[in-house]
Amino acid sequence: MTEQELELKKQEFLAIWDAYVKRPGAERLRSYLLEPQNDFFTAPASTRYHGAYAGGLVEHSLNVYHNLKAYLSRERVRDTFHFPEYSEESIAVCALLHDLCKMNFYTVDFRNAKNAQGVWEKVPYYKIDDRLPYGHGEKSVLMIQFFMHLHREEAMAIRWHMGFSGTEDKNTIGAALERFPLAFALYVADMEASYFLEGSE
Known about the structure:
Layout: H1 3-20, H2 26-34, H3 56-73, H4 75-81, H5 88-97, E1 106-114, E2 120-128, H6 137-145, H7 152-159, H8 170-179, H9 181-198
Antiparallel strand pairs: 1-2
């Protein structure tokens, strides 16, 4: 991703945030994301799967946002599964922040690899450096609530957005997705972004 593309993603994220996220603490969290020591807008989304490049995290967050809006707007989903109406703010908060736990989570290191000419050289790669080992979805919930309140279903959606890709007991995951429709919708939006829009490197 070029610097210009990265800047456009950042500005899109901030425009959505500014348009919809108005609750107390939102401005503090926005400022925190922009602090120079934080890499939310330049971090990858993973080490070698989807979005494994600078800016991958913000791009993934935007993809999930657009997927979630589209999913919740489908008449079949609303009529057949009786999804509640969710506010634009809830949709933005859940989608844009579901992977906040990946901020300041990766570092760049180097390894040896052969180039196109068959010569060994040092190449950069991302590796995990978890400075706040608190899980995945639950860590995002914790980080958000340092700044602003989450409604119960928002917290559950972010906590369980990994769905059955998570390591927790499958019965617990199933119960959470059944009880909290926003969690199920965010899970679908996240999987669609990860596997179909982004894919592995």
